From TrEMBL:
Its EC number is 2.7.7.6. Pfam families: RNA_pol, zf-RVT. It catalyses: RNA(n) + a ribonucleoside 5'-triphosphate = RNA(n+1) + diphosphate. InterPro entries: DNA-dir_Rpol_C_phage-type (IPR046950), DNA-dir_Rpol_phage-type (IPR002092), DNA/RNA_pol_sf (IPR043502), RVT-Znf (IPR026960). Belongs to the phage and mitochondrial RNA polymerase family. This is DNA-directed RNA polymerase. It comes from Glycine soja.
């Protein structure tokens, strides 16, 4: 370590590794400090606590040293605010690591001498990946922070330092709404960016900014369990079926979770599942509800999602939790979409009236295409040979009444979906856009997505501005004049023009 010569030490220090750039100045300060000290052999060695004038250690003086060592107002304020938020421990831990630059970004891994094929940002590949760049300065994430600023008409530069960015983002918007809601959004958006960044690196999933923002909005508003908070904030038009169903399912589960598990078995299921509820868990059930999904079908759908996540290992508990989640989801749908279900029932009743007279249901789509449901009963014909008896099946003239009734609502909806797609296709061609689609998923080049989004919304409004059900009933009455059909269900008061401004209207 060194030699003691003439009442002073001559230090001979060796280091186990080379210094990083940010460590060179620290080492120089350390060497200067130990060189400035003088040790006298004739003096008695004693322990001396330098921060205290008396040389005695105290907890108060140690706390003061720590405060002075981290005398950064922005960091202190940001951490104080963050620790006061009532958020899940996972989110708190992530936020602390983000504000303290403790996340395993590629620049931090390089400082720990971890060898990687590349240290550049995995999203843009233009600069070295650091917290400041990845979260706030990357071309793929920078616009995500400006989008919520536009909701409240805020402009101005945002710092790329995490602590200052957090304070700016929340304080600027505190003038228009409750401040902690924007702090929740900041944490949720940061966590969503990190989650999707990891998905891109480790699972080869595409980084889609729209999906990042969608997840962040959901998790930030999840704290309040009501879409009204998002509306108050002017965050986004949360009017999609899946999103609304999520809120209702979460409300029911939160209410059940507060009950006593000893008297209410649903309380245990609710507590186990409340952190598992997201768009993916309920989306399939919500989207197939318009096709008459049954309780068993909903249970199996949700069970598959939970099994994929390994959320519940015990098969018995998994089955019970799936049953509870299915009942809750279907209950939420019944409460939310009463008007839609009345339309589905009316369509089924009309089909039953037609099929009861041994006639197939038929209608004309908004594009003028005739559609006939081909469901007929099969007859059997036996052919006896010397070796065996062959059974042949062929359609008879009798229609399958039940199949005609249950299949008509989804088939009619599909015919409307197809009409919308064709209307959008024609409009995109006129606008010079390339177009591809599968069912209700429309595609074009990335540079034309905004234009296609505008077109498909306009065509949707154009399609449903027409009296769809009135035209259908009129066609039934002309085709089957001898039959009496039930009256039309009451129409709602939803303004179709709102679809033009809906962010999450279409895929």
């Amino acid at each position: 370590m060194g030699d003691f010569v003439e009442d002073r030490w001559e230090w001979k220090l060796s280091w186990r590794r080379d210094f990083f750039d940010h460590e060179v100045e620290m080492v120089a300060d350390f060497l200067a400090e130990i060189d400035s000290g003088h040790i006298h052999q004739s003096s008695r060695d004693v322990l001396w606590w330098k921060p205290d004038p008396n040389g005695l250690f105290s907890t108060k003086s140690a706390y003061k040293v720590l405060q002075e060592a981290h005398n950064n107002d922005s960091e202190d304020n940001a951490l104080k605010i963050m620790w006061k938020l009532k958020i899940p421990p996972r989110a708190s831990a992530f936020s602390w690591r983000l504000l303290k630059n403790r996340l395993p970004t590629r620049d931090n891994l390089r400082k720990r001498q971890v060898t990687l094929p590349s240290y550049s940002c995995p999203l843009c590949d233009h600069e070295e990946e650091s917290i400041n760049h990845l979260m706030f300065n990357c071309s793929k994430t920078r616009s995500l922070w400006w989008e919520p600023m536009r909701w409240v008409n805020r402009v101005g530069p945002l710092s790329i330092d995490p602590k200052n960015h957090f304070l700016q983002f929340s304080q600027w918007n505190s003038q228009t709404c409750t401040i902690n809601r924007w702090e929740f959004l900041w944490i949720a958006l940061s966590l969503s960016i990190w989650h999707h960044r990891n998905g891109m690196i480790f699972k080869n999933q595409p980084f889609i900014p729209e999906k990042v923002m969608d997840d962040a909005l959901f998790h930030s508003c999840l704290k309040h369990l009501t879409p009204l908070n998002a509306i108050d904030l002017r965050l986004a038009p949360f009017d999609s079926l899946v999103q609304d169903a999520l809120w209702r399912v979460l409300e029911i589960m939160k209410r059940d979770a507060e009950k006593d598990p000893q008297t209410n078995p649903n309380a245990l299921h609710a507590r186990r599942l409340i952190n598992q509820v997201d768009r993916k868990l309920v989306k399939q059930t919500v989207m197939t509800s318009v096709y008459g999904v049954t309780y068993i079908g909903a249970r199996d759908q949700i069970k598959r999602r939970l099994k994929e996540r390994c959320a519940i290992e015990d098969d018995v508990e998994l089955f019970a939790a799936s049953c509870y989640a299915a009942r809750t989801t279907l209950t939420a749908l019944e409460e939310m979409f009463e008007a839609a279900r009345s339309i589905m029932s009316w369509l089924g009743d009309c089909a039953k009236v037609i099929a009861s007279t041994n006639q197939a249901v038929q209608w004309i789509t908004p594009l003028g295409l005739p559609v006939v449901q081909p469901y007929r009963q099969f007859g059997r014909h036996l052919i006896k040979t010397s070796l065996q008896i062959l059974t042949l099946q062929r359609e008879t003239n009798k229609v399958m009444v039940k199949r005609q009734r249950t299949a008509f609502p989804p088939n009619f909806v599909h015919s409307l979906d197809g009409s919308h797609m064709m209307m959008t296709t024609v409009a995109c061609k006129k606008a010079g856009l390339n177009f591809a689609g599968v069912h209700d998923s429309y595609w074009t080049h990335a540079c034309d997505v905004d234009e296609m989004n505008r077109i498909l919304r306009e065509k949707f409004v154009e399609l449903y501005d027409a009296p769809i059900l009135e035209n259908l009933l009129e066609s039934f009455q002309k085709t089957f004049p001898a039959l009496n059909f039930p009256p039309l269900p009451e129409r709602g008061d939803f303004d179709l023009q709102e679809v033009l401004e809906s962010t999450y209207f279409f895929n």
